Amino acid sequence: MSVEIRIATDDDIERWNGYVDRSPQGTLCHEYEALQVQAEHADATLHPLIGFKGQEPVGLFPIFEIEKGFVTTAFSPPPHLRVPYLGPAFLNMGKLKQRKRDKRQERFVEGCFDWIESELAPRYAHLRTSTAFEDSRPFKWNGYDVTPEYTYAVDLSPDEDDLLMSFSSDARSNIRNADDDAYEIEVGGDEEIRLIVEQVRHRYESQGISFGVTEEFVLDLADRSATGAVRPYALRVDGEFVGGILALEYGDTIGRWLGGVRTDADVDLPTNDLLDWAVMSDALDRGLAAYDLIGADTPRINRYKAKFNPELRTYYSIEYGTWGMQTIASLYNSVK
Q1: Distance CA 249, CA 52 (A)
Q2: Domains of the chain
Q3: What confidence score (pLDDT) does residue 332 get?
Q4: Does the reported pTM lie above 0.85?
Q5: Is 97 within 8 Å of 28 (Cβ atoms)?
Q6: 231 close to 247: Cβ distance less than 8 angstroms
Q7: N or C: which end of the chain has fewer CB within 10 A?
């Protein structure tokens, strides 16, 4: 029996978040409400593809269609918003033996490609998977260019003392020796989201890097997420904001999404070490399994992240373009 691919019906949408929760590849940004927020802020048309084998769901694949002039493009996630992962999320695959699992995944992915080609005919497409996505072969077999990307994730299974002991000596020293009375860290709300996004924008633009994430996008994502959460960790000294991290939490994982940039405040504190430790300590208290540091492809930044003794994890950037379009696509600033 073949895999049927269709746009999610109203009944499918009612079950969508439950499917995301069941999928190993599911993330906060796969939630249907989060997909709607992404579409609105990317000026894109959302196509929530879903696949069935008989009555059994086998996968979700949200696609965002963006038209520029007479050029149609397809993304998952959409450009500019710096959503870390999206792409396909499989269902009911773990129970299958390898041969059947390979065949079903291949048929699901090929069915989605057939739908995208027949309904959208994009001249350029770019996808970015989650770290739980392990098999990129169906994309290669269908003519897509596949590039492995990397992130770091801290295992939160040890207790707090053992976790801290696994860090580098400078990280341990920075966390242990900071004067607890000199600062406070809280999980804030809308005000802290705005402060963190503005700080990150200022830092990027000071380096000549475009930063298209708006406060409104993050606020909408935080407000409308169904079961995940956007958690703004803010560090203050004498009541003044110094720095922060916007963390995305879903299931048993919390991720270091935006923030943790160098502060301009004149304070004698290891601000980012303290913020990262606050996220991890909070996650430990709530029984989470991992802290995704989101990214391990920049040597200078990697040196900072590696001091938390993380594990290296892989995800994939997947790209397709007709002649000349991959160069034009760089104008969207969309692939990283």
Answers
A1: 28
A2: 4-149+315-332 (3.40.630.30), 157-288 (3.40.630.30)
A3: 46
A4: yes
A5: no
A6: yes
A7: N
